[in-house]
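User: Can you write out an input/output pair for a complex, sequences first and structure second?

Assistant: Here is one pair. Inputs:
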Amino acid sequence: MEAISNGMRRGTIELRHLVRSSKDVSNYLFTVVMFVLIANWRHQQAQLVIAGGIASLSVLTALTSLPQALASDKMDGTLLRVRGLPSGLLAYVTGKILFITCVALTSSLLLLFLGAGINHSGLPGTVTAWLTLIWVLVAGFAATAPLGLLIGAVLPNAREALAMVMFPVYGLLAISGVFFPLSLLPGWLQVVAESFPLKWMAQGVREALTSGAHGGWQLPALGIFLAWAVLGSLLAAWLLQRTTHRESGSSLARRRELSTGPAK
Amino acid sequence: MMEMTENTPADAAVSVSDLRMSYGSHDVLHGIDLTIQRGELFALLGPNGAGKTTTVEILEGYRKRSAGEVRVLGADPSAVDDAWRRRVGVVMQSWRDHARWRVRELMVHFAGYYPHAYAPHELLELVGLKEQADQELGRLSGGQRRRVDVALGIIGRPELLFLDEPTTGFDPQARRTFHELILSLKDAGMTILLTTHDLEEAERLADRTAILIRGRLVACGTPTQLAHKVQASAQVRWTAEGAAQSQATHDPSQLVWELHEKFGGPIPDLEVIRPSLEDTYLGLVRTEGAQA
């Protein structure tokens, strides 16, 4: 379909812009390095932290970078411009998803290898373990990215988006077995963590790194991923269309005046 | 395709009847009627806050109207498809989007959305941005940025182009160049709806102008028709008995005839001064403003 191929081109160009900007690249590298440092500091739990970090990078990209990009595109008129193109919104979303997927997977893989080299957290030892790693990351990402789109569609501007999203996302990181084992948490908090994709992603990556001795987590994980992916996509599609349709040149100008103070 | 000899509203590019818009209890448009023929360059003129942008956004399909009939290229713009989008170009008031894209990069990308798009190099030449082709949009000057907006508006060779206040903030030279571009698009057969608060711009470019004040169309027509509609009086001046005489009249021809009869020959120093469109417009803004 034409919109999809236009979207792919869009995403590729935006990736090129990212690579050209040393500021953006170092922003993404910073989070990767942070997990390496934490794993270094908690070296008895290095594998847990690196596995959790690999999962978290996907979730962080989906839930913070994506809404931010969306909110700023809404703010500066990119979304409105795109709306004037035939099938523009579909192409835009396709491009954004391609962009954000590449960023998430690249940072996750980077942490995987950095962790193996520096923190001795290991690499998947078998083909099955690699497959586990891939399906967990891809499915988990597919489960969280729609939520990111949804947040970006709802939030009014980029700065606010970041502020409102950071706190709950880091809270989620704290309870999902990323920094310490889930079993240290009270039972009800474990149930909360289990209803989000991150816990299952972290567990899946850990299984892959240790070449999976435990079973039985795959089915519930798949269920949670599917539920989030489907519900998130439906809600995001609806909300995104709604906000884009509410945008107009005059509301854009009004918001710009509010954000930069009175013009002239 | 566009060789219609007779233009009924059915094949007009834009037809609007009794268009109303209100936000809550605040009425912004109070029943607007207008028709724009294919190939016409139509100006919507009015002071700031008159409702021009709201009107245009409804026609562009960016805003839902409260009431009234609207057809744009044969379709209701509140429910349009991709085929319609391909035939319409939009240049809105203020853009700051795609700041990190380079000019050529964005044009090449946008060209991919249309079946008969301008070749990017052709377009760069047309809007005079060849030298800025590899610059990021965020680094362009205001006037250059505006030309990118127009380039993106026309890139798909639309049948109908909306230009909302295109020359705000231009210096006289940039404005002149821009006007030449607009006129060349019109010559190529494009229907153009231009909004402006600059009367001179409307006068210079438009075939017909509609004046919108406080959400009402107070006059619509060619410059001459506009002057007639507002019935501003013409000044007739002459010299009689060694003194300058002057009289205001709605029918200068009649007055001159009477003077001829009276003088029984040539009238000394005869002058008939028709109101300029500017006088007309300012007169309208004044009266309508006073009524509100």
